[in-house]
Amino acid sequence: MLVHIKDIISKAQKEGYAVAAFNTFNLETTLAIVKGAMNKNSPVIIQVSETTIQYAGLKPITHIVKTIAKNEAVKIPVALHLDHGKSFRSVAECISAGFSSIHIDASDLPYDENVALTKQATHYAHKHKCWAQGELGNILGQKDVDAGLTEKDTERYMTDPEQAEKFIKQTEINTLAPSVGAMHGLFPGKEKIDQERLKKIHEKTKVPLVLHGASGVSNEDIKEAIKNGVVVINIDTRLRQEFSRSLRETLMSNVHEIDPRKILTPPMAAVQKAVEEKVEIFGSANRS
Ligand code: G3H
Ligand code: ZN
Protein backbone atom coordinates (compact mmCIF):
# COMPACT_ATOMS: atom_id res chain seq x y z
CA MET A 1 0.00 0.00 0.00
CA LEU A 2 1.12 3.52 -0.69
CA VAL A 3 1.65 5.48 2.53
CA HIS A 4 3.15 8.75 3.69
CA ILE A 5 6.85 8.44 4.48
CA LYS A 6 6.28 9.75 8.00
CA ASP A 7 4.36 6.57 8.91
CA ILE A 8 7.28 4.39 7.87
CA ILE A 9 10.03 6.53 9.42
CA SER A 10 8.23 7.28 12.70
CA LYS A 11 7.60 3.58 13.35
CA ALA A 12 11.20 2.64 12.53
CA GLN A 13 12.55 5.37 14.80
CA LYS A 14 10.30 4.29 17.65
CA GLU A 15 11.15 0.60 17.29
CA GLY A 16 14.89 1.00 16.61
CA TYR A 17 15.45 -0.37 13.12
CA ALA A 18 16.23 1.20 9.76
CA VAL A 19 14.19 1.23 6.56
CA ALA A 20 15.82 0.87 3.17
CA ALA A 21 15.31 3.57 0.58
CA PHE A 22 16.00 1.82 -2.71
CA ASN A 23 16.48 3.73 -5.96
CA THR A 24 14.36 2.60 -8.86
CA PHE A 25 14.66 3.52 -12.52
CA ASN A 26 12.10 1.32 -14.27
CA LEU A 27 9.23 -1.12 -13.96
CA GLU A 28 11.45 -4.16 -13.45
CA THR A 29 13.44 -2.67 -10.57
CA THR A 30 10.30 -1.36 -8.89
CA LEU A 31 8.65 -4.79 -9.07
CA ALA A 32 11.80 -6.46 -7.76
CA ILE A 33 12.03 -4.04 -4.82
CA VAL A 34 8.41 -4.61 -3.89
CA LYS A 35 8.64 -8.40 -4.26
CA GLY A 36 11.77 -8.47 -2.10
CA ALA A 37 10.19 -6.29 0.58
CA MET A 38 6.98 -8.36 0.49
CA ASN A 39 8.91 -11.62 0.89
CA LYS A 40 10.50 -10.14 3.99
CA ASN A 41 7.29 -8.52 5.19
CA SER A 42 9.11 -5.20 5.38
CA PRO A 43 8.19 -1.56 4.89
CA VAL A 44 10.15 0.11 2.11
CA ILE A 45 10.89 3.52 0.63
CA ILE A 46 11.19 3.72 -3.14
CA GLN A 47 13.08 6.75 -4.36
CA VAL A 48 13.78 8.30 -7.72
CA SER A 49 16.61 10.60 -8.68
CA GLU A 50 16.58 13.50 -11.12
CA THR A 51 18.54 11.30 -13.57
CA THR A 52 15.77 8.72 -13.46
CA ILE A 53 13.17 11.43 -13.99
CA GLN A 54 15.09 12.55 -17.09
CA TYR A 55 15.32 8.94 -18.27
CA ALA A 56 11.78 7.72 -17.61
CA GLY A 57 9.74 10.93 -17.26
CA LEU A 58 8.26 12.12 -13.96
CA LYS A 59 4.70 11.00 -14.60
CA PRO A 60 5.58 7.53 -15.95
CA ILE A 61 7.96 6.66 -13.10
CA THR A 62 5.59 8.11 -10.49
CA HIS A 63 2.70 6.06 -11.85
CA ILE A 64 4.80 2.91 -12.02
CA VAL A 65 5.75 3.21 -8.35
CA LYS A 66 2.29 4.23 -7.18
CA THR A 67 0.50 1.54 -9.17
CA ILE A 68 2.82 -1.19 -7.96
CA ALA A 69 2.58 0.09 -4.37
CA LYS A 70 -1.21 0.06 -4.51
CA ASN A 71 -1.78 -3.14 -6.48
CA GLU A 72 1.18 -5.41 -5.77
CA ALA A 73 2.47 -4.33 -2.37
CA VAL A 74 -0.87 -5.12 -0.79
CA LYS A 75 0.47 -6.07 2.63
CA ILE A 76 3.43 -3.75 3.08
CA PRO A 77 3.75 0.04 3.37
CA VAL A 78 5.59 1.75 0.50
CA ALA A 79 6.51 5.46 0.34
CA LEU A 80 7.66 7.48 -2.65
CA HIS A 81 10.58 9.91 -2.22
CA LEU A 82 12.68 12.23 -4.39
CA ASP A 83 16.40 11.53 -3.98
CA HIS A 84 18.97 14.36 -4.34
CA GLY A 85 16.65 17.05 -5.68
CA LYS A 86 18.99 19.83 -6.68
CA SER A 87 16.54 22.65 -7.34
CA PHE A 88 13.35 24.11 -5.95
CA ARG A 89 11.64 23.40 -9.27
CA SER A 90 12.52 19.71 -9.08
CA VAL A 91 11.12 19.49 -5.56
CA ALA A 92 7.92 21.35 -6.48
CA GLU A 93 7.29 19.09 -9.49
CA CYS A 94 7.65 15.93 -7.42
CA ILE A 95 5.34 17.30 -4.75
CA SER A 96 2.72 18.04 -7.44
CA ALA A 97 3.17 14.51 -8.76
CA GLY A 98 2.22 13.13 -5.34
CA PHE A 99 5.49 12.29 -3.57
CA SER A 100 5.17 12.28 0.22
CA SER A 101 8.80 13.24 0.74
CA ILE A 102 11.56 15.14 -1.01
CA HIS A 103 15.31 15.50 -0.55
CA ILE A 104 16.63 18.95 -1.25
CA ASP A 105 20.36 18.57 -1.75
CA ALA A 106 22.00 21.97 -1.66
CA SER A 107 25.11 20.60 0.03
CA ASP A 108 27.42 21.81 -2.76
CA LEU A 109 26.49 25.41 -1.99
CA PRO A 110 28.07 27.59 0.71
CA TYR A 111 26.38 27.12 4.12
CA ASP A 112 24.09 30.18 3.98
CA GLU A 113 22.89 29.34 0.48
CA ASN A 114 22.32 25.72 1.50
CA VAL A 115 20.18 27.00 4.41
CA ALA A 116 18.23 29.38 2.16
CA LEU A 117 17.35 26.80 -0.53
CA THR A 118 16.68 24.02 1.99
CA LYS A 119 14.39 26.32 3.98
CA GLN A 120 12.48 27.39 0.86
CA ALA A 121 11.99 23.77 -0.28
CA THR A 122 11.07 22.59 3.22
CA HIS A 123 8.46 25.29 3.78
CA TYR A 124 6.92 24.48 0.42
CA ALA A 125 6.96 20.76 1.22
CA HIS A 126 5.32 21.32 4.60
CA LYS A 127 2.65 23.52 3.06
CA HIS A 128 1.80 20.51 0.86
CA LYS A 129 1.96 18.03 3.75
CA CYS A 130 5.23 16.50 2.57
CA TRP A 131 8.36 15.69 4.51
CA ALA A 132 11.71 17.22 3.59
CA GLN A 133 15.23 15.86 3.88
CA GLY A 134 18.20 18.22 3.90
CA GLU A 135 21.90 17.55 3.40
CA LEU A 136 24.89 19.03 5.18
CA GLY A 137 28.52 18.13 4.47
CA ASN A 138 29.64 16.55 1.21
CA ILE A 139 28.97 12.90 0.48
CA LEU A 140 31.79 11.93 -1.83
CA GLY A 141 31.75 9.54 -4.79
CA GLN A 142 33.51 8.28 -7.89
CA LYS A 143 34.48 11.68 -9.25
CA ASP A 144 36.20 12.58 -5.97
CA VAL A 145 38.04 9.25 -5.92
CA ASP A 146 39.05 9.82 -9.57
CA ALA A 147 40.31 13.27 -8.59
CA GLY A 148 42.68 11.53 -6.19
CA LEU A 149 40.93 12.24 -2.92
CA THR A 150 42.33 9.98 -0.22
CA GLU A 151 40.57 8.58 2.83
CA LYS A 152 42.40 11.14 4.94
CA ASP A 153 40.95 13.99 2.91
CA THR A 154 37.40 12.82 3.39
CA GLU A 155 37.21 14.01 6.99
CA ARG A 156 37.08 17.66 6.05
CA TYR A 157 33.97 16.97 3.96
CA MET A 158 32.12 15.41 6.88
CA THR A 159 29.25 17.03 8.77
CA ASP A 160 30.03 19.10 11.82
CA PRO A 161 27.61 18.17 14.67
CA GLU A 162 27.24 21.74 15.98
CA GLN A 163 26.55 23.07 12.52
CA ALA A 164 24.03 20.26 11.99
CA GLU A 165 22.13 21.40 15.09
CA LYS A 166 21.98 24.95 13.74
CA PHE A 167 21.01 23.71 10.26
CA ILE A 168 18.00 21.79 11.63
CA LYS A 169 16.78 24.82 13.58
CA GLN A 170 17.19 27.14 10.60
CA THR A 171 15.62 24.88 7.96
CA GLU A 172 13.07 22.81 9.95
CA ILE A 173 13.80 19.71 7.85
CA ASN A 174 12.28 16.40 8.95
CA THR A 175 15.30 14.21 8.22
CA LEU A 176 19.00 14.90 7.75
CA ALA A 177 21.53 13.35 5.38
CA PRO A 178 24.92 13.86 7.01
CA SER A 179 28.32 13.02 5.56
CA VAL A 180 29.91 10.51 7.93
CA GLY A 181 32.23 8.40 5.80
CA ALA A 182 30.01 6.55 3.33
CA MET A 183 30.47 7.36 -0.36
CA HIS A 184 28.17 7.11 -3.35
CA GLY A 185 29.22 3.96 -5.20
CA LEU A 186 31.08 0.84 -4.12
CA PHE A 187 34.53 1.29 -2.63
CA PRO A 188 35.13 -1.88 -0.63
CA GLY A 189 37.20 -1.34 2.47
CA LYS A 190 37.35 2.42 1.92
CA GLU A 191 34.04 3.44 3.44
CA LYS A 192 34.35 3.62 7.20
CA ILE A 193 31.61 5.30 9.21
CA ASP A 194 32.74 7.83 11.81
CA GLN A 195 30.41 6.44 14.48
CA GLU A 196 31.39 9.01 17.13
CA ARG A 197 30.53 11.85 14.76
CA LEU A 198 27.24 10.16 13.84
CA LYS A 199 26.37 9.74 17.52
CA LYS A 200 27.08 13.42 18.22
CA ILE A 201 24.98 14.52 15.24
CA HIS A 202 22.14 12.35 16.53
CA GLU A 203 22.39 13.72 20.07
CA LYS A 204 22.41 17.30 18.83
CA THR A 205 19.70 17.05 16.17
CA LYS A 206 17.33 14.28 17.29
CA VAL A 207 15.89 14.06 13.76
CA PRO A 208 15.96 10.70 11.92
CA LEU A 209 19.26 10.42 10.06
CA VAL A 210 19.58 9.13 6.51
CA LEU A 211 22.69 7.16 5.56
CA HIS A 212 23.51 7.87 1.93
CA GLY A 213 26.00 5.87 -0.09
CA ALA A 214 25.34 2.70 1.89
CA SER A 215 26.04 0.13 -0.84
CA GLY A 216 29.72 -0.14 0.10
CA VAL A 217 29.34 0.10 3.89
CA SER A 218 30.07 -3.05 5.92
CA ASN A 219 27.23 -4.81 7.73
CA GLU A 220 28.94 -4.14 11.09
CA ASP A 221 29.11 -0.42 10.39
CA ILE A 222 25.48 -0.42 9.25
CA LYS A 223 24.31 -2.09 12.47
CA GLU A 224 26.30 0.34 14.62
CA ALA A 225 25.00 3.29 12.59
CA ILE A 226 21.41 2.22 13.30
CA LYS A 227 22.20 2.31 17.03
CA ASN A 228 23.61 5.81 16.49
CA GLY A 229 20.49 7.34 14.95
CA VAL A 230 20.30 6.16 11.35
CA VAL A 231 16.68 5.38 10.44
CA VAL A 232 16.80 5.39 6.63
CA ILE A 233 19.50 3.70 4.53
CA ASN A 234 19.91 4.58 0.85
CA ILE A 235 20.87 1.82 -1.57
CA ASP A 236 21.32 2.45 -5.26
CA THR A 237 24.62 1.09 -6.66
CA ARG A 238 24.14 -2.42 -5.25
CA LEU A 239 20.84 -2.85 -7.11
CA ARG A 240 22.24 -1.44 -10.35
CA GLN A 241 25.25 -3.71 -10.00
CA GLU A 242 23.07 -6.81 -9.57
CA PHE A 243 20.70 -5.83 -12.38
CA SER A 244 23.55 -5.26 -14.84
CA ARG A 245 25.59 -8.30 -13.80
CA SER A 246 22.64 -10.61 -14.23
CA LEU A 247 21.54 -8.98 -17.49
CA ARG A 248 25.04 -9.40 -18.94
CA GLU A 249 25.20 -13.05 -17.87
CA THR A 250 21.72 -13.77 -19.24
CA LEU A 251 22.46 -12.22 -22.61
CA MET A 252 25.80 -13.97 -22.91
CA SER A 253 24.39 -17.38 -22.09
CA ASN A 254 21.27 -16.97 -24.26
CA VAL A 255 22.65 -15.26 -27.34
CA HIS A 256 19.64 -16.12 -29.51
CA GLU A 257 16.92 -15.10 -27.05
CA ILE A 258 15.03 -12.04 -28.28
CA ASP A 259 12.13 -11.97 -25.81
CA PRO A 260 12.89 -9.09 -23.40
CA ARG A 261 10.53 -10.61 -20.83
CA LYS A 262 12.73 -13.70 -20.67
CA ILE A 263 15.93 -11.65 -20.71
CA LEU A 264 14.74 -9.33 -17.92
CA THR A 265 13.43 -12.01 -15.57
CA PRO A 266 16.83 -13.06 -14.11
CA PRO A 267 17.92 -9.43 -13.44
CA MET A 268 14.67 -8.87 -11.56
CA ALA A 269 15.33 -11.96 -9.44
CA ALA A 270 18.88 -10.74 -8.76
CA VAL A 271 17.65 -7.32 -7.61
CA GLN A 272 14.99 -8.96 -5.46
CA LYS A 273 17.61 -11.11 -3.73
CA ALA A 274 19.80 -8.04 -3.02
CA VAL A 275 16.75 -6.25 -1.58
CA GLU A 276 15.96 -9.19 0.70
CA GLU A 277 19.54 -9.30 1.98
CA LYS A 278 19.63 -5.59 2.79
CA VAL A 279 16.25 -5.59 4.50
CA GLU A 280 17.41 -8.41 6.83
CA ILE A 281 20.58 -6.49 7.75
CA PHE A 282 18.68 -3.25 8.39
CA GLY A 283 16.29 -5.02 10.78
CA SER A 284 13.08 -4.07 8.97
CA ALA A 285 12.02 -7.64 8.13
CA ASN A 286 8.65 -8.52 9.70
CA ARG A 287 7.96 -4.89 10.65
CA SER A 288 5.33 -4.06 8.04
O1 G3H B 1 21.06 8.67 -2.76
C1 G3H B 1 21.33 7.49 -3.01
C2 G3H B 1 22.29 6.77 -2.22
O2 G3H B 1 22.99 7.56 -1.38
C3 G3H B 1 22.88 5.55 -2.82
O3 G3H B 1 24.22 5.29 -2.51
O4 G3H B 1 24.85 4.23 -4.64
O5 G3H B 1 26.29 3.97 -2.63
O6 G3H B 1 24.08 2.86 -2.75
P1 G3H B 1 24.89 4.00 -3.17
ZN1 ZN C 1 22.77 9.76 -1.91
Entry summary:
By secondary structure, this protein is of the alpha/beta class. It has helices at 5-15, 27-39, 50-56, 58-71, 88-97, 111-127, 142-146, 151-154, 161-171, 195-205, 219-227, 237-253, 260-282, and strands spanning 19-23, 44-49, 78-85, 101-104, 131-136, 175-178, 209-211, 230-235. An 8-stranded parallel beta sheet has the order 6-5-4-3-2-1-8-7, with helices on both faces.
Give a written overview of the molecule:
The chain has 288 residues and is of the alpha/beta class. The protein is built from 13 helices and eight strands. The chain has helices spanning 5-15, 27-39, 50-56, 58-71, 88-97, 111-127, 142-146, 151-154, 161-171, 195-205, 219-227, 237-253, 260-282; strands at 19-23, 44-49, 78-85, 101-104, 131-136, 175-178, 209-211, 230-235. The chain has an eight-stranded parallel beta sheet with strand order 6-5-4-3-2-1-8-7, with helices on both faces. Helix 2 links the parallel strand 1 (19-23) and strand 2 (44-49). Helix 2 packs across helix 13, helix 5 runs parallel beside helix 6 and helix 12 packs antiparallel against helix 13 (260-282). The protein is globular and about 60 Å long. The termini are close together. Residues 23, 83-84, 184-185, 212-216, 234-238 line the site of glyceraldehyde-3-phosphate (G3H).
